[in-house]
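Progress narrative, work stream C.
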Amino acid sequence: MIDPSDIGERSSEGYSDGETSDDLAVKYPSATGSYDTPKSISLLPQQCLYDLINKVDVSVAENSKLTNLAHTTDQDYYIDQLNKPFLYINSAMIEPIQSVILITTKTYQFSENVSEYLKDTPIIFGWQNIYQMQASDISSNIQTCYRSLYLHLRQHLVFSYVIGLSQTKIDTIIQLRKNCPRGRQMFHFIGYQFPKITNRGISYYPISSTNILSFESLFNIISPPSCFLFDCDNAGIVIPIFEEASKHFVTPSARKTDGNQASDWFCFCATSPGEELPIIPYLPKDFLSQCILNPIPLVILCHILQNYRTSFPTENFPISILNDILLNSQNGEIERNKISLVLLAVADAIASDNLQPFMFKQMFRRDRTTSRMFEHFIVAQHLLQPYGIHPQSHPRLPNLSTHQLWSTLESELSIWVSSKISGRPNIEFDFFNRVLTSFENTMDNGYISQVLLALMCHAPFSGFDGAKRSVILLSQLAARSQSNRNMLSKISIFHAFFARLVSNLSAEELHSISYIVVSLLQCDPNSVFDIRHDLDISALPNALFDRNVNCQTRSLIAAILAAVIDTVKAVEAFCSTAEFFDSLTQEIPIASPQLQLWLLILVKRVFGSFPAISGSFTPSGAHLQIAACLNHKSPEVRAAAIASLTAFIGERGPATALIYLASPLLFDMSFVVRYEFAQFLSRFFELQNLDLSLLEKIQNERNSKNSKNTKNTKTENFPENSEQKIENSEKNENEEEDLTINGIIDKIVGSHVSLERTSDSFIDFVHKCDDINNSEKSDEYLVKAITLYSDILEKDPHPSVKQAGSRLKKAVFEGGEISDGDTDALFNISLRQLVNSGQYKVSEEINEEKPFTFTPFHSNDVPACSAHELLVAKLTDMIPYHVIFEQTKYSLAVASPAKSIIRLDEGLHQFGRLSCTDAAITDLRTTEWDDVPRIIIGSSDGCVNVWEGNHHECSLTFKATTCSANESTYQLVSPARQKHKFATSNFNGGVVLWDADYSQFIGEWKGDKAKMTSLEIAARDDTTVISGYENGLLSVIDTRQPHLFSVSSPNYNLGGIVKIKSSFSSDVIINTMSHTGVYSAWDARMWEPVHYAQINTFVDECDIHPCYSIAILTPNNGNTMIVSSSGKVLCTLPNLKNVSSVAMHPTLPIFACSTQSGEIVSYQLAFSYN
């Protein structure tokens, strides 16, 4: 466990463990305390609604645009699986060192040289020649040296120095561990002038065969989490002993954790078993100790000894020369830091290139102290290799002493050490400049090695001139692919990037490093635990509403704040103030769609556990400003809006009004929006104390209606205003109930409301919702609304939404478990979309619509033609009964009674399959928008699914008609050719128009009560929708006239309409084929026949070519035939039996047929005009 004493530690070396200082936390009342208040009967208990509406900009939806983020993926379809906490259990974190015990030999033994030959040579210990020191000064100098080194490595640790080892000292060590029961303890043993350690353990004074501290006992005394450093001969023998001891170690109850604490220990050994440290007088006797804690002097010394010494050195060597280089020279400390940066970059890159990712992340990224020790241990491997010494560690690191990158370091040191006369070069600049040049060149070639990337990750934090350029290049690399981001996440130092983010940066660098941080958080959410406690992050909240900062950059900053909210409580404190809500209300109307999205997600993340206090948001009207986004053109913003409204449902008044304001989202095309709406309702039900005794009354009313065979989707009436009497809302039993989408929404708010994106429509909607809130029966209407919502959501075609609706309904009626917590699904999806959009630099937002180009076709009557078979394919696992060509290709989409769709390429080979519904497929259409093929599927349960590109799941799935789950409807669909929208049929013969770009309901038009059998949006005029019915009626709707409809009934006996096909050759020509064999064309504006022909047969299946005046039809009894617009039979297909479906290609003279035996046959038409 993390020691509580570390929490809030003001240290530049400390790291967060997921908790922060309590003084930054915002205290909330309990959900069952302050929020369990008597209901307020007004949307605004202390403020006039009219005044508040004037404070907010309600035109935000009217002026909205798309976010232009990356598209959703197949993974997003399973949104309930993404509904998991952004942060997972932080089991991989490493506890930092809290205390150190340093053990050296007794003072009088330091000056005793082991050899007569070496009696006049220096004894280097703690970078002091103790041979020339007074015995009384030795211990104090050693203590001062190592205390400062450890405190430089990590502040606020407990340092204890033990001189010599005896039973009394062992008891002292035991007591020291008891005094620091939590946290990692470091046992540091320097074996100079101690007896050589053996498998039995460490000999202590007085030396005897029995006075030995066994390593098993030592392991249990220090006890994990722990760290050991043995700087002595034969040191490697301790590792296998410790490994065996850890298997039998029992964690004290005071330190029990969920993890395997017995294995939580590290060990550094200067030598392998049987090896002895080199007896070279100019090397320090505490070689490994100095290398791990202070490697720069040792690196320089070893380089000099191995490359430049040609004679015996001068007096006081090596102390004198090291002091001259690092201490006495001008800017010595600066030079030392430059070498340190280069050295650590090299060691870090070597480790990343040779270790498994998990091991590298654990030892070199989780804790700064641990990572520094392992980096310096790798340096020790390299320095001791020329002397035949092989240091060992636990966890075991491979021998990295011969990596080729060491030669680069040696060459840099050679230039630096030998340039004393002419002035030392800037080793940091030279090294990282070469790294930057290599990185740019290899990026152009498309491949970056792991070593080079690791070096590059250190460049932004160096002082060379290219640091800014290195940040931009790293962000560009991250934007290219997910694999690049994964590699960057494994190698980069998150806390360093985050610390730089909150420093003073240029606009370009701020954006690039923000994108890097967002990418790292998306790849590894637990990176937030690396953020230091004492880091001042005020620069980020300040930039959030700074309009001098680009909106894209602020979107990235908002995403970062939303990601770190659980660990950096200062963010929560900032977002809980009235000033924040004031700024939010002012920013949302003018922000870019992407910034709007992330501001709303930030609100959702901040108040995910507890709602906001009404006094903080009510004066600014933030809840109304966010509610105005519920009709935003971007489905992501709509989803974020309803998700963020959970922040305002702590008190009954505002919460109840929001329930009604959100009602149009029931029929949103986007399953993400509907899922978030279901989560919003669940959260509302959890926080509000509803009068569930009203459920019995509602159930009785339902049972009464069911007994009269009324439709079980009928909705309850709500009063138009608070004064309206309940009897005024009662309907005549014989009066037909309006079950259109508009009709259901109207009943919720008690009268007609407009669902347009206009300011007046929204204001009118707010007032009517507030009227419900003020009515005497507000409780009853609220419970009725909740039950209605749960009914509709329970029948949703998307499995995740359906499951959420079922849980809600069960909780309402049976008191079941409503959910297993709040949702981060939208946050996880949006974060991935933001990263995948690749915004590594600020770019201009492009929202221009692409002009639609149309190639004119000429419709001439064809005198004669012949059909030539092209390909035949046998489908062994399905019987096709819907077949249709894709728009610009030869490929086909085929539907089967098995409720699945397959795609066939031009060779009739299957290359895609989808099962998206449990109901019968009633219509299948294809279109191509932005060069992406889309298949639109209608099913008998009133649902529509959109399958696009090479995805394996639907991008859209929604309920297109208001029929109930146990009713069957002949669901028709028709895509527009020019704009990204399509029409669907309603169960009552009406037409509904949908916007595919915005994933949003556009409008609804009533139609004939007869069964609709065909639907078509005019190819050259997407404002015209034509529908045909089984009674022979044709209806033409002008969608520029909202909520109006125009039905034309020509005085011709057409019979039931089988097919309607818009002509490509004219803006107004509509071709139709009826069941009685009437082939006609109509002017959709004048509604006059262009041609009219009677074919003497009844037609079951038919398709009409939009470019040529021909149709293919399957008679009731007879051969499939091709006919002209004059009714002339051009050719027949006598060999084609039991045809189940026919399809003409949209532009080419090709058609295809499917048979009940499972065959797909394609044909080429050859025309003859002679």
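Work stream C, second folded protein:
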Amino acid sequence: MNSIGKQIGVLVNLEFSKLFVGQLFSHLADAIIQFLLAGILLQISENPGKSVATMFFVFLLPQFLLSLFSGALSDRFSRKVLLTVSCLFRAFIIGVLILLLPQLSTSLIYIFAFVLGIGAAFFYPAKMSAVTNVVKRNQFKFANALTSPVGAVSLLFGALAANHLINLSVVKALYIVTAMYFIGAFSTSIIKFLIPQNYFTGTQKSNDMCIAFDYLKKHKKALYLVGLSVCLQFIVAAFSNGLNALITEHYGLSYPELTYLRIILGIGIIAGMGAAIYFARIMRIPHLFASSFIILCAALITAPLCKSVDTAWLWLIPVGMADAVVLVMLDTILQKVTPDKMRGKIFGLMLTFNTLSFLIGTAIIAHIAGFINPLNIFKGIAVISFILAALILILDKSFRYFLLKATLGHIFLLLFRYKVEGAENIPRNGKVILAGNHTGHLDPFIVQMATHRQLWFVTGPAAFKVPIVKHFLKYFNVLPLKFSKGLEAIDAAKTKLNAGEAVIIFPEGKFTPDGELCKFNRGVGLMAKGTNTPIIPFAIKGGFETWGQTRKLPKLFNTIVIQFGQPITDFDRDEKEIAHELQACVNFMKKSLERRVFYNINHKLHSNFLDLMQEKSDIYGQVNALSLKTKNGYEELSYIELSRRAKKFANYLIETAGLQRGERVAIICESRPEFAVGIFASIQTGAITVPLDVKLTVPEHTHILNDCNPRILLCSSHYLEHAIEVKNNVKSIEQIFVLDDEERNHPEIPSVSALDADIEKDLGRPRLLDETALIVYTSGTTGNPKGVMISFGNIYSQLRDFEAMFKLTHEHTLLSILPLNHLLELDCGFFGMLYMGAKIVYIKTLNPKELTTVMKEKGITNMIVVPLVAKMLKNSIDKQIKKQSASTQKIFKCLYGISKFMPRKIRRLMFKSVIDGLGGRLECFICGGAPLEDSVAEFFERIGVPVFQGYGLTETSPTISTNRYGHSKIGTVGQPLPSVQVKIADNGEILATGPNVMQGYYNKPEMTSEVIDENGWFHTGDIGEIDKDGFIKITGRIKNMIVLGGGKKIFPEEVDAVLETSELIKEVCVMSLTIKSGNKAGTEEVGAIISPCDELLSKTDDEINQILEQEVKRLSEANLAPYKAPTVVVLHRDELPKTSTRKVKRKELKDWYEMLKV
């Protein structure tokens, strides 16, 4: 049962219903009798106004005099009995009043009002305490939402009821009131407490007030609540009396017409009951209190603007709601923070002071109402409400933290270049220790501003002597460390950690004198070991230069970087060893940050790819390189951990497995961090890596691996069974290694993580740029796959071009969704992002909802996609837009229309809600592998998230050209990369040359010479053109080109693009098809094999064929020359066969067609 269901369970609680009915009739009878007595006084008193005011005062007086006593009784005796006796006592008094009705005088009415007030004074504390005996603790809020505002609502509606009853006759009205008290008595007398009352057992009854006061002194939260309640009662008194004056002067109504506005106010109070339940679930209580007083303030300021009674509800309902919310939450929290045996006393004491506050407020307003405009009274109440809201927020530590962090955060951004890395390593809740280097005076603020949690600081006495800093420390959670009593601070820190808090400590215990690390003290080890708390190391770069020990004033606009590393969790050792490991980790992170600065200044070329890998590991160290979204969160792998694991595995392969330079290592693995361990280990051994498409079958993998003859096969646990079958068919494979530990059905096959290898040895073999790095097999869309040999030089040229064109940095995060055997993903999305020091996130599904969730959680800035994924995301956004209201869709359409005239930053603001649905930080897509529909490119360009379409082949490593920021043209594949040259041959074929062109096809020199001519130009096989700005446009592919009998040439891609615009066509592949029968038997015609939309699949084949033929004809006549129109339309009910990069397998599809015709 969820929390809402548990709250609503109060409604079916029979015992609570009895209490509620008893309270309702008791309060309503109190309200009616007060107004009945007021009506009698109006008839018999010589000074009716003064007499009525005195009567109300006399009725309230016992609540001030006796509430504490009555509350004490409700703790010592049965609350049920007190409630029942209170109702019966008042019923008896009404009976006496009926008997003495003919002799009533003003003085006698005062006496009756006072005695009735005595009965009411004994009801409230017992009722508020009894609520906790009939409902569960988690239902207090809902129960109080029903009970707490009843008094105020009864007072409002009691006036209306009294007005109607007095018209019958006073005697009948009094009999009805008596009956109501009897109903209340009966209802409370039959209550059965579900939670037994815990009676107070003290013997000195005279000290009840002292006991209550002592409790409040020791329990500040209860004291604050009582104080807030007293303030609220003053506001209610001032408002109620000010409202009376407002009616006659502002709205020009008579006193009896006040009833209408009271009813509106009552409606607001009732609405406030529901508001209290709802907002208490989504807001912190102090913020709810403050918000209520701010709403009250705003409503009272709005009152003068409502000139007529008809618009008075605009401010009266918010006033009623705010009052009810505060009242409900006050009672609820006070019930929770007070023990049962003290509850009556505390509520009695609160009622005593509430009554006093109400009387004082009434007296003040009555005194000044004659010479002050009632609107000014409301303004005064508004000011008081605003002050209360401000005080609540100031006293709330979390708000102070938020305000201080927001203020300092903005100051930091103005005064310093401030960067945070690895904040995702800090858990959002639960105990954790943050420990790092102490560079200067700003360190506490640097760490606090970088985290999303409130921190407890273990701080030395020197911090309290620093100007400016010492004034801010009192607003932080500080655990002062006195060197003579250091263990006391450590023990205090342990207490906070065991309570689930986050503690920060600078283990050096002092500022660094020269920017270098001092020795870490063992205190951090004691804290971690004693509480079994993970340590998150951090390193600050720039703090010493900005405001270190040697500087008197901070150096403005300096760069400060703080980096958080992976947690340290091994505490089964001496605390000094823990401190030593922490120091080594922080020192490594610090040096990495320093090397990064040096690298940016002295950027150099590399001739050894292994040096490049090591350099990135040294620079980015503890930064998370790779993440995988799993059911249990994210699996993370930092740069240093990736380097460490890859080195260990490589050492094993060299030393134990005996892997030699140039031998092949094949990988069958889905996109996950362990893939990186495998490929980098393979590189370090000097082997050639063969990444395989996981979607291929065992026979297809067998064919490929028998071509390249690998000695080692790496696989993920998910593909282990598949790998075993492949090994049985490929004689060259000697050993399988499992890269991950997710599923282990074959324990005899070693896991990489379990291998025993010496990580200290440097066995890695240098990898020169002209060496073969990869053999990547083509997708084989038109024939058998060919092994493309890619050198380290090919890869490096792509990395440098990629860096120059897209300006990506370590602050970017890529969501990887393409398979890692796809060279675009492997070169640009894997090697490229790691080359920049960026982060890569893997996901196991392409579900749009899951994609957007990960994009938000990880702050994705870039994605490499194939056109089908970009189209899928566009369709998902379109569906969300269509679910919106008609007016919202019109606004979107209008913004979409004008966005093409706006700069990209303005577009992103215009479509912020759409971009937020894509994670909020997405900057662009990089797209390749197939043609991109212009409509998809146009859509994302308009919303400020461009899709940069590129072009290339596996043989060109893979990119030849791409669109990019400032150089983009929809409908083209962009301009050539800086290191690549492109030209158009006489037959229209695109030729390319540069350091990206492959070494050749593995073991196929003849095929290599067919595509790379003697001048080094690679013949792409694609037909295209280059415009005057250097943008390349692909118009077709030579191998796919259809040559008709008359010599006319047709490129299927052009026809595909036209037919794909139809909503009836899900997928289409245009190709040359042989006619097998009829007059044209044996001739080649333009054919279209079509997979229809889902809506058509329920129809018969003949019906679908007829619809598709008509649709093809319609589109062809409108968009194509007659000879290009398909004359053969073939239905394919299933999805068209594709490669892992979503390219249609034309050869397989044509074979299907040939078999179909046979």
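The longest strand covers residues 1065-1074. No further action is required on this item.
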